[in-house]
Amino acid sequence: MDRPSARRFEGKVALVTASTAGIGLGIARRLGQEGAKVVVCSRKKASVEDTVAALRAEGIEAAGRPCHVGDAAQLKAIVDFTVQTYGGLDVLVSNAAVNPASGALLDCPAPVIDKIFDINVKSALLLTQEAVKHMSRGSSIVFISSYSAFNPPAPIALYAISKTALLGLTKGLATELGPRGIRVNCVAPGIVPTKFASALVADPELEAAQRDANLMRRLGRVQDMAAAVAYLTSEDASYVTAETLNVSGGMPSRL
């Protein structure tokens, strides 16, 4: 995909979590290509350093530091780092997620339940609580959910249910932050063949089945998700809040 010509984020600062690979990196890159100063993070210092160097080599203003989103102190630290480095925060994209196990809901052990909801839901709210302290009217927040949120499938139902929770979190926070002029939206990606989703396309037959399950008859691309986030966080969507944009080639999107 060609580099976008729009510069909708000139003078803006964006923080994207889990942004050294996959969809998160694609989002950070797209916002940076449109003029944002971008802060990236992930758990590994080397990954952050490599990503910052790569983005800067592309002409993007970028900085970063390690952050384990399951640690509230580190969430505060990455927000503080963003504000100290670039003087503010205008766009927050909460992308971090885990799926440490698969199987039946009735067989899921308590530690796995705790980890999925701590990382996929609790951290998103705690991060927002820290971020909004520095966000002013016109700022924007996007949560990355999943097409599976609308109909949690076996054997990843628990992961999908955590993504369903983000749909509610989006609406709840949009209600609270709307009077302050801060918009909150959500993107629900379809299957994008990143490392995170590798099990879903592990062999040609499975990949073909996933491709044929949507109306477009293709898998999603990182660029598709990045473009959706760029729209929702830009002034082009200035009257859009509390919404979930299903970017999945036409997969069903009703609870």
TrEMBL record:
Recorded superkingdom: Eukaryota
Gene3D superfamilies attached to this UniProt entry: NAD(P)-binding Rossmann-like Domain (3.40.50.720)
UniProt-listed NCBIfam families: PRK07231.1 (NF005559)
Family note: Belongs to the short-chain dehydrogenases/reductases (SDR) family.
Protein's name in the database: Dehydrogenase/reductase SDR family member 4
Organism the protein comes from: Auxenochlorella protothecoides
